[in-house]
Design brief:
Elements (H helix, E strand, L loop, with lengths): L34 H8 L12 E2 L5 H11 L3 E5 L5 E6 H6 L18 E2 L10 H11 L3 E6 L2 E7 H14 L1
Parallel strand pairs: 1-2
Antiparallel strand pairs: 2-3, 3-4, 5-6
């Protein structure tokens, strides 16, 4: 990294210039190059207008969860305890991968057996980049949005794509 003060070529990631001791931490921070990057880096998850979560209790049967998913036209349900706390998420992927390994019929079994317990979450104040990073690293298509441990919404990869597409149309 080239020091803007003295021009010395320092090791990448250096916090200060090895020649003049100029602070270079500000130079390491990414800067947005366009409207899309700026939105990802600065806008909170709340700009996506997270959907109201569709929820079921942990004791709901897989059959009921499927009916709720189909009726609500959603790809994931949040599994919520009686006190409103998030217990897990039950998605199309959970349905396809986990019950398929059973020999028995699974539709009457409780959803808690197949949900992803303690899922990754975001808050309404987290940046879009943070949420997108969680989705990418974890391979998630849906993320619960929580405040004080209780779900307030759900965001999806599709929500991100719509937001980015909107920004691209405005350019």
């Amino acid at each position: 990294m080239i020091c803007p003060n003295c021009g010395h070529d320092n090791l990448p990631g250096a916090e200060e210039c090895s020649r003049c001791q100029q602070d270079m931490t500000q130079l390491d921070r990414p800067t947005a190059q366009d409207r899309v990057e700026r939105s990802l880096m600065e806008d909170p998850v709340s700009v996506l207008g997270p959907r109201t979560p569709v929820t079921v209790p942990p004791t709901a049967t897989v059959s009921l969860a499927l009916q709720v998913m189909l009726h609500s036209d959603v790809g994931a349900l949040l599994v919520v305890e009686a006190d409103g706390r998030l217990a897990g998420i039950f998605s199309e992927r959970d349905l396809l991968l986990k019950p398929a390994a059973l020999d028995e019929t699974f539709t009457g079994l409780p959803v808690r057996r197949f949900m992803t317990a303690d899922p990754e979450t975001v808050t309404p104040e987290d940046t879009l980049a943070f949420a997108l990073h969680k989705m990418d690293v974890g391979g998630y298509r849906h993320l619960p949005v929580v405040k004080d441990g209780k779900p307030t919404g759900v965001i999806s990869v599709r929500d991100m794509l719509r937001h980015i597409t909107r920004l691209c149309k405005e350019i």
